[in-house]
Amino acid sequence: MIHSLFLVNSSGDIFLEKHWKSVVSRSVCDYFFEAQERASEPENVPPVIPTPHHYLISVLRHRIYFVAVIQSEVPPLFVIEFLHRVVDTFQDYFGVCTEAAIKDNVVVVYELLEEMLDNGFPLATESNILKELIKPPTILRTVVNTITGSTNVGEQLPTGQLSVVPWRRTGVKYTNNEAYFDVVEEIDAIIDKSGSTITAEIQGVIDACVKLTGMPDLTLSFMNPRLLDDVSFHPCVRFKRWEAERILSFIPPDGNFRLLSYHVSSQNLVAIPVYVKHNITFREGSSQGRFELTLGPKQTMGKGVEAVLVSSQLPRGVLNTNLNPTQGTYTFDPVTKLLSWDVGKINPQKLPSLKGSMSLQAGASKPDENPTINIQFKIQQSALSGLKVNRLDMYGEKYKPFKGIKYMTKAGKFQVRT
Amino acid sequence: MLSMSTNNLSYNDQGGSDSAVEVGQETTPTSSSNAGAGFGLFSTNFKKNDDLKEMLESNKDSLKLDAMKRIIALIAKGKNASELFPAVVKNVASKNIELKKLVYVYLVRYAEEQQDLALLSISTFQRALKDPNQLIRASALRVLSSIRVPIIVPIMMLAIKEAASDMSPYVRKTSAHAIQKLYSLDPDQKEHLIEVIDKLLKDKSTLVAGSVVMAFEEVCPDRIDLIHKNYRKLCNLLVDVEEWGQVVIISMLTRYARTQFTSPWREDGLFDENSETAFYESDEKKTENEDEKKSYMMDPDHRLLLRNTKPLLQSRNTAVVVSVAQLYWHLAPKHEVGVITKSLVRLLRSHREVQYIVLQNIATMSIQRKGMFEPYMKSFYVRSTDATHIKSLKLEILTSLANEANISTILREFQTYVKSQDKEFAAGTIQAIGRCATNISEVTDTCLQGLVLLLSNRDETVVAESVVVIKKLLQTQPTQHSDIIKHMAKLFDNIAVPMARASILWLMGEYCERVPQIAPDVLRKVAKSFTSEEDIVKLQTVNLAAKLYLTNSKQTKLLTQYILNLGKYDQNYDIRDRTRFIRQLIVPNEKSGALGKYARRILLAPKPAPVLESTYKDRDRYQLGTLSHTINTKASGYLELSDWPAVAPDQSVRNVEVIEPVKEWAPSLGKTGKSKLSKSSDDKFYSDSGEEEGSGNSSSDDSSSSEESSSEVESDEEKSSSQSSEESDKSSSQSEKSSSESDSEQKKKTTKKPPQKKTVKPTAKDSDSDENGNVAKEACSSSAEETSSGSDSGSDSGSGSGSDADSHSGTEHKKKTKSKAKPKMEVKSTKEVSLLDLDDFTPTPVTRPKMSVLSPSLLGDLEGLSLSNISSTMQVSGPAFVPEKSHDLLHRMTGKGLSAQYQFPRQPCLYQPSMVSVQISLTNTSDRPLEQIHIGDRSPTGLNMHCFNTIECLLPEASVTVSLGIDFNDSTQAANFQLCTKEDQFSVSIQPAVGELFLPITMTEQDFRQEQGKRLGMNESSATITMAAANTTSQPISRQVATVANLGVVPSGQDNIHRFAGKTASTGAVVLVTVELRGESTALITINTEKSVMGPMLLRDLKRALAQA
């Protein structure tokens, strides 16, 4: 399975290596660097690179490449999924997953990697179990440890490891018992030049933050479960119950976790919450181009559209821009040609717009494609698909928990072709 | 010391060069942090190591820990820290667990380089392997097995074997991991490791399943036979296995299924699986007459796999989803594959790398099965933010999905892509348009027009790609398109991309007759620039020249010769070669001969149009989802997916031993289950699967199955009993004389002691009325007597005399009962027997007191005398070591989460000597605590049983082992009782094998003979058997006998005779077993005991055990 792991930063240095079997020389990464050089963008490095004796499978997260060395046949997704899990764990432990954070906590990282894989086969990847084995570093604990000489490492086998609910540790205690659920929907859409929708899909997740004492058994039911076209569950959800009654019944892990992700099919009509009016032109022979962009709300169910961010990759020929936003700020990076406009909140009475001119390279022919516009936004307190949680019940414990449910809609990959 | 210092030196030399780099890095602000204390010292590399050594040798844990942390930081950076090995290894036994762990990490990293020093640490691990804390046991095994030092292979082997039978599933899981490590260290251990794998495969813990299958795949993926028995268990456990294990198990089961089931893909097959029942029935029919194979029927095991993997499509783990998808793709009937589509499309929302792999798999699938993904076409639309390799994969899929209905949508989408700023992608789109045009004839013209428009594009890559694609398209229908060719000729000046130039030249040459004016002109132009062209263009120039020479030699003769001359002196040998060849072919001279005549036909032959195909066309030769599929070459260690077998191999190999609490004769059935079931399994097939752990089948299945199986058992019993009765007939005829004698004696109701009396067991306390022994059939054991025996524990019964001699079992009523010399047998007791025989479970309290008064008290005095002298010669000994076999008492499905297993520890019972001790391990598999577990009603009501104390609370996943004492009264009748929790009551039963009712005793050979002499005739049963080849030496024989019955070995003077002795637990009747080898493989088994019921039963079990390997 996984032989070794190398962590490579964006400048191409290996800053951490870990071997689970015999040591593999770091020169194996030369093949990776070659591929990295060939790729125009960091994302274009192929995830699987065959070399004469090994196979390199890499993921890129937070501008760090996690390069796993494989020696024989293994499902590539197995490795990829595992590497992502490693990143998630680091993020969970250190708050961020950056080169600096990893270097600072190199011992914890090593202990974690040691627990997560045995001989290249995943051993413990469940965050609840890992946290019992190796306590996450906090400032308080660091201080306490230096004084008392106690350690970050648990002495007992985590109880979860052996139970039928490996995701939950036992003996959880809270003074305030609370369970929060965030229904977050992302809308992916491609809008064509004329403003009509080419494709639109809603992907949703329910993220939970559960801090409940003991072994609570929760059920969550929806007003309109039929909306959900395809779902994937956290292992804690009882699948049979869902199949039969469309009710989510589960013993939750302790802390933050993703309970469910779902897909609302593209067959249903999706209401697009914003519209864009644009007029981007390059004239032949002239070194000037016009740029006009206006945003407006549409079908938002009365909720405000917030945190709007417009970005666009302008053609290579554009040298600079001279634009005027009616609200917010805009930046243009002349090197990467990336235009981004932080709009903020859309006021329906006074629609935000960005107008002005672009200066083009003199003498160059006009670009044949207009740039694509990517839009990000948030709508609080509403789930675009109309999904509604009906009720949340708790069994198995006697106290009354505090329950909260929040809805939010976000733009996923929302693109407007111009 | 000397060696150490040299070590040091050499390291420092290295370190010196390193440190220079280090200094530079350390000045960067990123590493000035809390761990920075360690990093800060990097610059002073020379001091640092001494410093670390000092810290490690101090007696403060905190200093040591600090040092270790810094060393780990070194290792993480890829620095060499091996010279600290001696200092580090000293701390391996540290009490501080974090320090210990860090030392482990270090040890594993450097043990290979410092083998001798690493050996110092081994004893620590060996000690830790015995630690009561399972985490410590497991981590000791982990580290021990990770130390790649060949010398310790035997130690590892031992540790693995031990850990494989550890109580803790976590330790067993670790041992499964260790198997692979040992295998890679020393492949010679394969055979031993396979044994361990086989053992662990039988493990029922979900924790172990994934790891052991991984080990299986690594060590012996071809030993598919090990899987048969565990196949259904694995299928049923699958949902509960951790996600990584699921991936491994699914891919293994995919391979397995391809070798074991027939193809569900037969085109003419009727897929009538509408209802489960119809399907099951028809399957039975099929097995009845194998010839009738017209319609395909899926093996139920095949169906089981598909059914149990389907929920995993909902897993959050993408690797699991794809592995289920590939399983369905490779195993499911065509019309069922559709279920995977949605899940795969869902994964497209995941990370970039996941998308890449999933799209690759979809690309392969969509070539064969357009329909699957067509409804989701829009999910494959390209976004400008996608990475290039994702874009081209999406393009690939869109092209495969194109058909007459959706082509216009797709082409419109492609138009956007062509304009993309990513030119590589735009070029890819043009190729895709070309493919659409050839595949769908309706749009060929439209596509061609569109492509021609692209020829005026400003971007060269786009134009060049268009030219290449147009060339291919024109080849398919060249007649109408001379104007396009002309247009392209005009472009020739502006295009610099070699491939495009070559394509135009080729077009000119091929269709020169359609553009007679232009072609020579193009040749003229290219002749000017010939020397500076790329090779591919030069080759096409030569071709063009040749073709024009043949069709239009007037205008082009000189040009051609010029080009051929240039080509003759070209630097590239290919071009020189081609030039020479063309010259010989087209320019007539004396040497050219016959070939010249055909030059025209050779060069201007009509050429077949190229087929534009997907690059994913041939990827389906690899199993989907594998690394080999991704890189499109065979990765090392790739296991081919075999083709479906034409005829399915015997499906009965997957049948598992039935362990049924309700059943009679369970243990003996258990032992023989394999052979028997495979013979007649077909009709019992479903019951088996129904009983499997965790199977989704309802309890109704279970009950029906138990009916079936018990009926099966009965028939079997009849068979064997008739056999044994024949034997006993034989023996009884031998003892005819004595029996007739005894008959008469019996009538007299005398209390005269027969010679056998002396054999009474040593313990006077061993109460029990002899009547028990008389009871022939185990089902009839008299509860009435049981209670009586409980009350008069003080009286010694003459159990030795107690055996009456019906040759029992199912047919005993017909048999004439011949009791051998039972003088003390009262009439009453015989009456009692027959009474009980008739109605098994109705104890008659009225009769009880009589018996208890009569028999034991009478005998007690008489026999007390003989006790002392015998006890010295016959002593209860410890049981021979045999693997403990546990039986299901209560399944977790029926027990609402409470599961119980029992086993016979074969120890004398603490509570009462007449009891057989039973260990019950209770496990709470539910998710709530179970309270007040205790034993409720028992039946027969008089059952003498020592219960365990009520367990107040059993937490989820906790398990507890309790021991019971049960007085079985020397019969194999099941003890039925109720296991109660606070809320529920479950009826369970414990069914002892006859062999479990004995206690082993030791005696001398002489005593054995003497005792044997007292138990001849009716009390002797014997049989001649053919032994399995493996059982012909003394050790296997002892082992087999010990497995069957709890008997002690009696030292034997002769090599070919093996003796074993024991006594029954309740009555203490002596049981003597002799196995005499006669010739190569035959043996005579003789059993001497007054318990004439138990004798033949034991004989039967022994025969069976010795006959099989």
TrEMBL record, chain A:
Domain MHD: 176-417
UniProt GO BP: intracellular protein transport; vesicle-mediated transport
GO cellular component terms, A-Z: clathrin adaptor complex; cytoplasmic vesicle membrane; Golgi apparatus
Coarse class of the protein's main subcellular location: Golgi
Membrane topology: Peripheral membrane protein
Subcellular location: Golgi apparatus; Cytoplasmic vesicle membrane
Keywords in alphabetical order: Cytoplasmic vesicle, Golgi apparatus, Membrane, Protein transport, Transport
Keyword Cell membrane: no
InterPro entries: Adaptor_comp_med_subunit (IPR050431), AP2_Mu_C_sf (IPR036168), AP_mu_sigma_su (IPR022775), Clathrin_mu (IPR001392), Clathrin_mu_CS (IPR018240), Longin-like_dom_sf (IPR011012), MHD (IPR028565)
Superkingdom per UniProt: Eukaryota
Family per similarity comment: Belongs to the adaptor complexes medium subunit family.
Name listed for the protein in its UniProt record: AP-3 complex subunit mu-2
Lineage, top ranks: Eukaryota, Metazoa, Chordata, Craniata, Vertebrata
TrEMBL record, chain B:
Domain Beta-adaptin appendage C-terminal subdomain stretches: 997-1107
Skewed-composition ranges (Basic and acidic residues): 738-748
Biased composition (Basic residues): 749-760, 813-822
Pfam families attached to this UniProt entry: Adaptin_N, AP3B1_C, AP3B1_C_2
Region (Disordered): 1-36, 668-830
Low complexity compositional bias, start-end: 695-708, 721-737, 781-804
Membrane topology of the entry: Peripheral membrane protein
Residues forming coiled coils: none
Biological process according to GO: intracellular protein transport; vesicle-mediated transport
InterPro entries: AP3_beta (IPR026740), AP3B1/2_C (IPR056314), AP3B_C (IPR029390), AP_beta (IPR026739), ARM-like (IPR011989), ARM-type_fold (IPR016024), B-adaptin_app_sub_C (IPR015151), Clathrin/coatomer_adapt-like_N (IPR002553)
Compositional bias (Polar residues): 1-17, 25-35
Domain AP-3 complex subunit beta C-terminal: 828-973
GO cellular component term of the entry, any: AP-3 adaptor complex
Family affiliation: Belongs to the adaptor complexes large subunit family.
Described purpose of this protein according to its UniProt entry: Subunit of non-clathrin- and clathrin-associated adaptor protein complex 3 (AP-3) that plays a role in protein sorting in the late-Golgi/trans-Golgi network (TGN) and/or endosomes. The AP complexes mediate both the recruitment of clathrin to membranes and the recognition of sorting signals within the cytosolic tails of transmembrane cargo molecules. AP-3 appears to be involved in the sorting of a subset of transmembrane proteins targeted to lysosomes and lysosome-related organelles.
Alphabetized PANTHER family for the sequence: ADAPTOR COMPLEX SUBUNIT BETA FAMILY MEMBER (PTHR11134)
Name by which UniProt lists this protein: AP-3 complex subunit beta
Species the sequence originates in: Hucho hucho (huchen)
